[in-house]
Amino acid sequence: MSVPDGGGRATATVFAALGDETRWAVLVRLGREPASASALAAELPVTRQAIGKHLEVLRAAGLVESHRRGREVVYRAIGSRLDEVGRDLQRVAEAWDRRLAAVKEIAERGDG
């Protein structure tokens, strides 16, 4: 189940993409420097084919983008998508803080 966020993409899709250890490693690596799938496969303990599948999931979640450089496709991380998710999480945290403060106030007053 996914719940659309303000940016039109499902935050749950991002969490699903980042829930895989290899995809997280790929995203962290791409955050340092753009790379091709072949370069990523040489650095990580997975095949080139598996890296391609992980990159497609990350691209579908809006976390990476690609461009052609000569004969290879180079991928880079998109930080703005993580910023959107961070803002979504901040709104959730603030809402919970307000709810917990209200419960605390009621408990301290002895109303309920």
Layout of secondary structure:
Elements: H1 11-18, H2 21-32, E1 35-36, H3 37-43, H4 48-60, E2 64-69, E3 72-77, H5 79-109
Antiparallel strand pairs: 1-3, 2-3
Helix pairs in contact: 1-4, 2-4, 3-4
List its traits.
3-stranded antiparallel sheet, single chain, alpha+beta, disordered N terminus, about 10% strand, about 110 residues
If you had to describe this structure to a student in words, what would you say it looks like?
The protein has 112 residues and is of the alpha+beta class. Helix content is 63%, strand content 12%. The chain contains five helices and three strands. It has a three-stranded antiparallel sheet. Helix 1 (11-18) packs antiparallel against helix 4, helix 2 (21-32) crosses helix 4 (48-60) and helix 3 packs across helix 4 (48-60). It is elongated, with a radius of gyration of 19 Å.
User: What ranges have pLDDT less than 50 throughout 5 or more consecutive residues?
Assistant: 1-5
What percentage of amino acids are in beta strands? 5-15%
Specify Rg, calculated over alpha carbons: 19 Å
Number of strands: 3
Question: What's the main sheet like?
Answer: 3 strands, antiparallel
Portion of residues within helices:
55-70%
Side-by-side strand order of the widest sheet: 1-3-2
Number of helices: 5
> What's the mean pLDDT score?
87
Overall form = elongated
Give the N-to-C terminal Cα separation.
Answer: 35 Å
Structural class designation? alpha+beta
Oligomer state equals single chain
Order of helices and strands: HHEHHEEH
Brief synopsis:
With 112 residues, the chain is an alpha+beta fold. 63% of the residues lie in helices and 12% in strands. The protein contains five helices and three strands, in the order ααβααββα.
